[in-house]
Amino acid sequence: MTTTTTSSAPVSDYKPDADGRLLEVDDLHVEFHTQEGVAKAINGVSFDLHQGETLAILGESGSGKSVTAQAVMGILDMPPAVIPSGAIRYCGQDLLTMPEEQRRKMRGPEISMIFQDALSSLNPTFPVGWQIGEMFRQHRGMNKSDAYAQAVRLMERVAIPAAKERVKQYPHQFSGGMRQRIMIAMAIALDPAVLIADEPTTALDVTVQAQIMALLAELQEERQMGLILITHDLGVVADVADRAAVMYAGRIVAKAGIDDLYARPAHPYTRGLLESIPRLDQKGQTLAAIGGLPPNLTRIPAGCAFNPRCRMAQDVCRTDVPALRDVGQQKSACHFAEEVLNG
Amino acid sequence: MTDTIAATVAPGAAGDDVGEARSLTQDAWRSLKKNKMFWISVALIGVFVLMAIWPSLFTSKDPGFGDINNVRATPSAEHWFGTDTQGYDIYARTIYGARASIIVGILASLTTLLLGGVLGVLAGFYGGWLDALLSRITDIFYAIPLILGGILFMASFPNGANSNYFVVVGKVVLVLTVFGWPTIARLMRSSVLQVKPNEYVLAARALGASPWRIIRSHILPNALAPAIVVATINLGVFIVVEATLSFLGIGLTPPAISWGVAISDALNAIRTYPHILLFPSLFLSLAVLAFILLGDAVRDAFDPKSR
């Protein structure tokens, strides 16, 4: 804890276990019951998150990254979403069986989230300082002028110039990067133990992306938060994340330390993703893309969900679902993980 | 880095400079102040409201005194607007008639905004079976035309000869509320549905805002403007319906004084003495126009996108 974060912070009722484990997602399933049928968005996802750790969740659009995040936050619209099985434990307590009111009070002070589109995540009708201050009014019953003072403090912390003057300006008076900083200020206002960032830089231009990632990394280091970084952009997380989980069609297909993931991918999908990043030193070559599209979640292929797009697919891939298993230092859900790992 | 920040924002130093939040209403007010139409309509409405509260400020004549020897007189220094078929002073009766219209209009607008607003927000925000139920109820009431509903209701519960003035006015307000709220409810529901999927509502949920706070801070400020505009414009409509019911002899009835009653009485002599009809009609039109102008001005001010 630093001097900036200790002001009137109440002691949390939740303590991580002896290993510093904050969050544990265990065999989570999420379905969406729509008129077109049942879309199986999440099919048995498990991961955990420790204090001071950054976990990257990677995957294409529709792979279930955001749904996982929203299930952890408890902000899925139910219905149409249904969670048929699984558990999400925060400091040992199952969030899915917790009364909604208790769970709501955890959002903000314990688990917090920032969103992809900073341009629309702020309410256009109120000044930004009012919106940051709302965190303190809602959760700590603080009065208006104290909440404003806290807002100024947080805006300075996320490096918004002239915070004292700008605290009363409206969202449309800020640039995209500044708005994302304000969103981050709101999310960290109550010192959450876990911060989920759902594609925090996707809507921003490249130079601003780096600044926002640096800010997140700095805050995470300073407050020893557990950070879940959801992105489809492998370039964004390389410097920041400790571990990564790769999702495909609602499953985690690979888990690895961030260096292993980039240097020695153990799943054909991970390798495909890495090969499809444009590289400056390979000018003139055709960019390797993964052929085909991610599966429709109402009709996930039998066997390995990736088999129709996989260059290595054999008969076994079309019948048997590969389990997530240890391969060297990593985990991979591929029947031929060793072959992939060894090139 | 953190140390320098802590030094610059020592408690108190930061708090002193931080004044009031500029709320949405204050902002709307700032843009209203610059609008000419707003001031014209406010001036007109101000005069009408003053007339309603304090009619003796405008005339010393007794609106209940009919000079049977001087009926259907044309405008003169003695009788500015002339006298009607009963010998009443038209100017005095037109001034006193404002009260019924203004009370009915304002009360009915407020009650419809409240009832329709609450039901619309509940239906739009919670959705599901509650929405289905409330929407069907809204449809049922929406299907009954305001005038028809008014006629049916007032004909079923007619005023007695000696009914108290406020009972009669209250009855008209009640009937306008019962048949007038569906417009607001439907409008409110649809604008809540438009606001609800916004990412800032999701973000507010993710940061632990309670449903009540989400409605109050995020849904209402962004969804209320159209309802306020329509409620203001409806105010004019309700004044017209009140006049219509009175015209038909089932709204306000004599001895109550109202523009609708005056217009109804004037019809007998419309060809020979049109001035008897002219003045109450003119005031009625001006009042309706004033509220519609106000509604337009308020719409422009409350729409954050127009700023």
Rg of chain A computed from alpha carbons, rounded to a whole number of angstroms: 21 Å
Greatest contact between two chains: A-B, 49 and 36 residues
What portion of residues of chain A belong to β-strands? Answer: 15-25%
- Total strands of chain B: the figure is 0
Q: What series of H and E elements makes up the topology of chain B? A: HHHHHHHHHHHH
How would you classify the helix and strand content of chain B by structural class? mainly alpha
Distance between the termini of chain A: 45 Å
Please tell me the overall pLDDT of chain B.
Answer: 81
Q: Over all CA atoms, what is the radius of gyration of chain B? A: 25 Å
CATH class of the largest domain in chain A: Alpha Beta
- As a percent range, the share of strand residues of chain B is under 5%
Major sheet summary line of chain B: none
Structural commentary:
The complex is a heterodimer of chains A (343) and B (307). Chain A is an alpha/beta fold and 343 residues long. Helix content of chain A is 31%, strand content 22%. Chain A has an 8-stranded mixed beta sheet with strand order 7-8-9-3-10-11-13-12, sandwiched between helices. In chain A, a hairpin with a 2-residue loop joins strand 12 (325-327) and strand 13 (330-332). Helix content of chain B is 70%, strand content 0%. In chain B, helix 5 runs antiparallel to helix 6, helix 5 packs parallel to helix 8 and helix 8 crosses helix 10 (211-247). Classes of the chains: A alpha/beta (343), B mainly alpha (307). The A-B interface holds A 2-4, 7, 73, 75, 104-109, 112-117, 120-127, 129-130, 133-135, 138-139, 144-146, 148-149, 152-153, 156-157, 164, 167-168, 183, 186-187, 222 and B 2-3, 5-6, 8-9, 11, 14-15, 17-24, 198-200, 202-210, 213, 217-218, 221-222, 304-305.
